Amino acid sequence: MNYTEQQILIIGASGLVGSELISILLEHGMQATNIIATASKHSIGKVLNIEGNSIVLHPIHDDLFYSKPLVFQCASNEAALKWTPIALDAGCTVIDCSSTFRLNPEVPLTIPSVNSSSLETSPTLVAGPNCTTIILLTAIHGIHMAFDIKSITVATYQSISGAGKDGLRALTDETNGKQRTSNGVFPEPCALNVFCHESLVNPNTGFNSEEENVIDEIHKIWDDPDIQIIPTCMRVPIVRVHTESITLTIRGLISEAEVLNALHNSTNVVVLNDEGNFPTALKASCSDVVLVGHVRVVAGVNETTVSIVACGDQIRTGAALNAVRIAEKLFEISTKK
What DSSP string describes 29-56? Predict the structure, then answer.
């Protein structure tokens, strides 16, 4: 039986990722009656209207986990820590979109188009990477498979919704002229502004937490702790989609044609590299793919520098859709056994 034909449980269904996940599941053939949506106390009893379906939000309790083959965890780290052990004890498979288990060496950190082999053992707990990492590695996976990448330098321009509904509310309020509060979600004004990601800066490294997450997650996913990664993560005042300016140092000399061929052969990537037709946040919004373009290739002595721009919808491609793809890959693997 396909997982879409069984009841599944979603923790944090009222959030941006949770509601996007429901929409994707419905698009992929799941019946609304098979979705048990739970939310925090202040949202219980509310109804989500998604894809023409009314999804009632329920309180979460231990008994809900029994007879559910699959749980999508889209809530906070605190919720993940509380409910994941209960779900696993009840025999569920848990796909976690929070950061709780990402760097746990016993938990696969998975982007199915990049490292689906991490799912071959049919793990009962799988973590989805940070949205920035998903977009980045999806964009460059074809290059990584074809060539020897020495280092990655990436500047990200991350949408306000990456901070959840509170981030969107802050942008809306400021755009409408409402006075921002000093204890708001962002340390800087977000309307008409570009500023460093709001996560805490590590005084020992100078990287903020978002940047450190990108470094640590790539090292784990690629199983390559030596590759040099220098991210700079910024916020920009748009509703959704992260844009990334990616520069790779590649060992050996390669041509632009070879780079484009590698990109065209990538999974879940669409190349826009014609004059006047480059990736933009608006083009990538609500898309199932990462848009890649503005390709530049500069040959050195024994190395090649490759720069590209990638745009991906961080709520959809960078979170909810990745979770659904994990579920679909797990089901595919189980049917072959």
Answer: T--GGGEEEE--GGGTT-EEEETTEEEE
* N- to C-terminal Cα separation, the chain: 14
Query: What is the β-pairing status of strands 53-58 and 93-96?
Result: unpaired
Asked if residue 34 lies in contact with residue 26, where contact means CB atoms within 8 angstroms, the answer is: no
What is the greatest pairwise CA distance in the chain?
64
Pair type for strands 195-196 and 148-159: unpaired
CB-CB contact of 40 with 69 (8 Å): no
Q: Are 261 and 240 in contact (CB under 8 A)?
A: no
CA 271 to chain centre: 20
Contact 135, 242 (CB under 8 A): yes
3-state secondary structure at position 94: strand
Task: Kindly list the distances between the CA atom of residue 255 and the CA atoms of 30, 147, 250, 259, in Å, as whole numbers in the listed order.
Answer: 45, 11, 11, 6
- In 119-208, which residue ranges form alpha helices assigned H by DSSP? 131-146, 164-175
pTM of the model: 0.96
Amino acid at 49: N
Which residue would you say has higher pLDDT here, 45 or 115? 115
- The 10s digit of each residue's pLDDT in 103-129 is 999 999 999 999 999 999 999 999 999
Sorted by where each starts, the structural domains of the chain and their CATH numbers stand as 3-129+319-336 (3.40.50.720), 133-314 (3.30.360.10)
**Closest alpha carbon to 194 in 223, 222, 234, 162:** 234
Please choose, from the candidates 211, 195, 207, 113, the residue with its C-alpha nearest in 3D space to the C-alpha of residue 160. 195
Shortest CA distance to 137 belongs to which of 317, 327, 320, 258? 317
Cβ contacts of 332 within 8 Å, gap of 6 or more: none
